[in-house]
Each structure stands twice: as structure tokens, then as C-alpha cells.
Design a protein that fits this description.
Layout lengths: L5 E3 L5 E3 L3 E2 L5 H14 L3 E3 L7 H11 L7 E6 L8 H13 L6 E4 L9 H13 L6 E4 L3 H10 L6 E5 L7 H9 L3 E5 L8 H5 L2 H10 L3 H11 L3 E2 L6 H8 L8 H7 L18
Parallel strand pairs: 3-4, 4-5, 5-6, 6-7, 7-8, 8-9, 9-10
Antiparallel strand pairs: 1-2
The chain binds NADP nicotinamide-adenine-dinucleotide phosphate.
């Protein structure tokens, strides 16, 4: 079974550097996926209230027979839980669905800057963290100005910023800000996403590097993430691919390999930094 390295968060909690993405699996599919993943060594599961599968994630964890505290479970609260104290009820409902006493990481799913409620929501998150219901708190889809505003108006620095990230969309500004402020960057859609993985993984530079390292293109991409300190969240409901995605801690990309991947950022998705609502 593969041992997955951990990265320390600013709260002292350790986060496994590779986690299982769970969108768009439903409760039944995700429970089976969590059992298969845990058997391979996964202990970090990424869910969200918006995915409608928190109960299935928790059910899968219970079915493994492995103690809850050995898992790292993230959930996210979407826009309906922003503003006032809405996040309190949002987290309570999530915990009831999961039948858990706490989550390891609670994220604001999107900043929704036009609503201008993410700062007050973050203040509520700070209280939920202080009360022990979330062992760490963080954000998702935040750009540098949103992070700067939290730094100016709140007390707790987000433990993570979970953003769409892959070699075609490397987001240097968000990563640099995060590194300078002790925020761990989590890569979602790390393989290019459900609709983009096939084209990313067919890139000739990736296939050539894969051949040279006797790895798969997906392993080269995931190695690109973890070697640069990101936490990667590949989704798969296929145990063979789950195992493949874990095989990234057994080889290294050279500085020259990383240089070969840099031009991918000039591809069609490089400028995709919109406020689109992701999953
Ligand atoms: N915070 C946010 O706003 C947000 C937004 C999007 C996603 N996320 C999170 O990030 C997770 C991952 O993102 P994602 O699902 O969009 O994209 P992804 O993980 O980059 O790609 C998933 C796709 O890649 C395929 N795949 C997985 N491993 C593979 C391999 N080794 N070789 C070839 N194909 C492979 C999967 O198919 P199979 O299942 O058939 O293997 C699936 O079609 C989500 O599940 C979710 O937890 C968060």
C-alpha cells in the first residue's frame, strides 16, 4: 500500500498530498470509490455540499472499518451558506449528513465577489474553527485580491486555497501569494478536468516524458503538481486509475523536464481565469 506524504497546514494539521476528488459521483458510487481508494492507501477525500455526495463519502469511510480520525475529509459550503451566520447551519447540516463530529477542512467554495459576503462568511468560519467543528478552514477559487482582503479584514489566514490548476493553467500569481503567506495550494481538476483530461494527457510533450520515465501521462502531470508542493485531488471512480494516480511518489521530474512542461501554459486554457462557477 502506498504511503502518501503529508504537508503541514498553518493550523498544525497535516494534509495528505494526494486526495480523491469526488465530483460528479453520487452517494452510491462515491461510497464504493472511497472503499476502493482507502484499500489502495488514500486517506484524503474531497467533497462539497454542492456535490450532493457527503453522505456517501462518510458511508464509504465507515465501510472501510478504518477509524475516522485516520481520514482527512474536506467539505465546502457554496453560496447559499454565505452571509450572516448561514455557514453555521451549513456545516451542521453537512455534519449531520455525514454523521461526523468534525471535518478536517472546511472551504468557502467560491468567493462570489459580487455578493460581497465572503469576508463575513470567513468570520463565521473562524468561529467554527475555534469551536472545533472544522480542524482547518480555507477557501476555493479565490484570486489574490480576495486573499488580500481576508488578510486585511480577518484574523485567521486560510490554510488552503483550492483552485483549478494544471500545467496548462499554472496560476503563478495565486501560487506565489499562497507560498508567501503559508497557504497551501490545492489543485482541483489536476488532470485537466472531466472534459479536458483526454486532450491534456495526449499532449506530445507529456507522452514523450511518460515514455522516458516509464510512467503514464497522468503520472507525469500529477508529479508536476506534488513536486512543486501542491496538494492534488484527481478524481477517478476506476480503481486501476486510482492506483495509477498514487504512483507519483516513486520518481522525480528533473528541472529540464519541468522546463519542457512550462510552454504548455501557452495553450488554449492559459488565460482561463474567469469567475466561472466550478464544481
Ligand atoms: N473547488 C472547486 O470549485 C472544484 C471544481 C472542480 C473540481 N473540484 C474537485 O477536484 C476533483 C478533481 O477535479 P475534476 O474531477 O474536475 O478533474 P480531474 O481529476 O482533473 O479529471 C477527472 C477525469 O480524469 C479521469 N482520470 C482520472 N485518472 C486518470 C488517469 N490516471 N488517466 C486518465 N484519465 C484519468 C477521470 O475518469 P475516471 O473516473 O473514469 O477515471 C475523469 O474523467 C473533483 O472531483 C472535485 O473533488 C473542485
Amino acid at each position: 500500500m502506498t504511503a502518501i506524504p503529508v504537508v503541514p497546514l498553518n493550523t498544525g494539521v497535516a494534509i495528505p498530498q494526494l486526495g480523491l476528488g469526488t465530483w460528479p459521483m453520487d452517494d452510491a458510487e462515491v461510497a464504493d470509490a472511497v472503499v476502493a481508494a482507502a484499500d489502495l492507501g488514500y486517506r484524503h477525500i474531497d467533497t462539497a455540499t454542492a456535490y450532493g455526495n457527503e453522505a456517501g463519502v462518510a458511508e464509504g469511510i465507515r465501510r472501510t472499518g478504518i477509524p475516522r480520525e485516520e481520514f482527512f475529509v474536506t467539505t465546502k459550503l457554496d453560496g447559499s451558506f454565505q452571509g450572516g451566520d448561514r455557514a453555521v447551519a451549513g456545516l451542521q447540516a453537512a455534519l449531520e449528513r455525514m454523521r461526523f463530529d468534525y471535518v478536517d477542512l472546511l472551504l468557502i467554495h467560491w468567493p462570489l465577489p459580487k455578493r460581497d459576503e465572503y469576508v463575513s462568511t470567513w468570520r463565521t468560519f473562524e468561529r467554527l474553527h475555534a469551536g472545533g467543528l472544522a480542524r482547518a478552514i480555507g477557501v476555493s477559487n479565490f484570486k489574490v485580491p480576495h486573499l488580500e482582503r481576508l488578510a486585511a479584514e480577518a484574523d485567521v489566514v486560510p490554510a488552503v486555497n483550492q483552485v483549478e490548476l494544471d500545467p496548462r493553467v499554472p496560476r503563478p500569481a495565486q501560487r506565489e501569494y499562497a507560498a508567501a503567506h503559508g497557504i497551501v495550494t490545492e489543485s482541483y481538476s489536476p488532470l485537466g478536468g472531466a472534459s479536458g483530461a483526454a486532450s491534456l494527457l495526449a499532449d506530445p510533450v507529456l507522452t514523450e516524458l511518460a515514455e522516458r520515465h516509464s510512467r503514464t501521462p497522468a503520472q507525469i502531470v500529477l508529479r508536476w503538481h506534488v513536486q512543486q508542493g501542491m496538494v492534488a485531488l484527481p478524481k477517478s471512480s476506476n480503481p486501476k486509475r486510482m492506483a495509477e494516480n498514487l504512483g507519483v511518489f516513486e520518481f522525480e521530474l528533473s528541472p529540464a523536464d519541468l522546463d519542457r512542461l512550462a510552454p504548455l501554459a501557452g495553450g488554449p486554457d492559459a488565460g482561463n481565469d474567469s469567475d466561472r462557477i466550478g464544481h
